[in-house]
Amino acid sequence: MLCAAVFVLGVAMSPWAAHAAEGKDAKPAAEGADKKPESDLPALPADKTVKQSVRVGGRTVSYEATVGTIPVRNAKGKKIADVVYTSYVAPGNDPHRPVTFAFNGGPGASSVYLNMGAIGPKRIQFGVDGDAPSDAAVTKDNPNTWLDMSDLVFIDPVGTGFSRSLEDEDQSKKDFYATEADIKYLSRVVYDWLVKHGRLRAPKYVMGESYGGYRAPRIAYELQTRMGVGVNGLVMVSPYLDPAAIGDGDALSPLPWMINLPSMTAAHLESQGRLTPSAMEDVEKYVRTQFVTDFLAGRSDPGAIGRMVQKVSAYTGLDPAVVARLDGRVDIATYLREVHRNEKKIGSVYDSNVTAFDPFPGSAERQSGDPILEALLAPTTSAMVDFVTREVGWKTDAHYEALSYAVNKAWDRGDADDKPVADLRKAIGNDPNMKVLIVHGYNDLSCPFFTSQLIIDQMPTFGQTQRVKLAVYPGGHMFYSRPGSAESFKADAASLYGTKR
């Protein structure tokens, strides 16, 4: 699900990794969990399926829920990992029924967030103001599940959920905790699931949230060109698409600052009840024009910084004195603290209007974790484990890793920062029938929507205006936690899938 301002979780997730690296998030108990060879552990259970149903749009949709495993093998055929998936499949094995493969991000996030927060048949509340770790881990039918228009397969990468490596720590890093290896083995998992369940003739969709949004276009291209599997459509949720553009530490480039300002402005407008697409047009035009000119002029134009301070203060609602001290360059960490300072609260990087009390309000620097991230871990983990072990009956003594900081810390980023956009272009160029839906929440500062807007604006015109759509909804990184945004998201997805509603 998550996407970090530096590198992300997919929580659904990101910036949690950036904050953890700075020592600002609580250290999870799972740190270093990968040091014991997984092969010493008992075998995972056999696949288990139960029949369930959900009410969607006034009708009952029956389905089979399965928790199962896909083995990962090396070039010599030796099994080196177990990848655990959760699938929801309509009975009948209709070869024309779409199947959607969903990945969260991190790296280090399981797929529980898209599963039980966004499109699965059951959901648990998380990601909005007032949520708490002690909230009951009780799921309800999801009125906005996509199960009425597609079968759903949620895949937990190695080191997340119950998925595990069977190799030692060093080899696991090479085979699973690296950008390029990740794309290759997960693409093979998708292929193997399709073969295992006889679904190669089905329309296929790949969905990714946060760092999963980094994965999605790359997996689609890998499936096209290496696995021999065509992909009908991509859905990227709060995607981490351009690592070079995210962040606010490069004082010489206006790009990170101009990307972050619209999301700060959206949060301010929402707090005043004035957030609309038309209300956002002014700031989006400003960051493309006068902001860039004044930023690059700097001290060479005596009026440039003053103009920036005036405009940025008005857009964000921050005290002009604070903005002036920053020369009009408001970084994310400062914004999240200052915008709620009078209440002695802190905002979430995933949705800056979701807050928690600051346990150290007098400290010069923030010393606590993210309000959304730390509130969602307990209820989502408990709900997922209860579903898997009690409802489905897939019994295991292993711990469910909803968010693995150990995986995130071990990750080898490599030099593939430009690959998701490049692979997206190539995948679309290869297949004139492929469609893409990129979706964001206005208030997300971990993976701001304006990054995707700029990327789309720079894409070639080979039909992308008809085939690549950007939609932005009220909310943050996990905008789907808001019923209205979840409903709008499904409506846009139905258009992508060609489904009548």
UniProtKB/TrEMBL annotation:
GO terms for biological process: proteolysis. Residues 25-39 have a biased composition (Basic and acidic residues). Residues 25-49 are annotated as: Disordered. It comes from the Bacteria. Pfam families: Peptidase_S10. The keyword Protease applies. This is Peptidase S10. It comes from Dyella japonica A8.
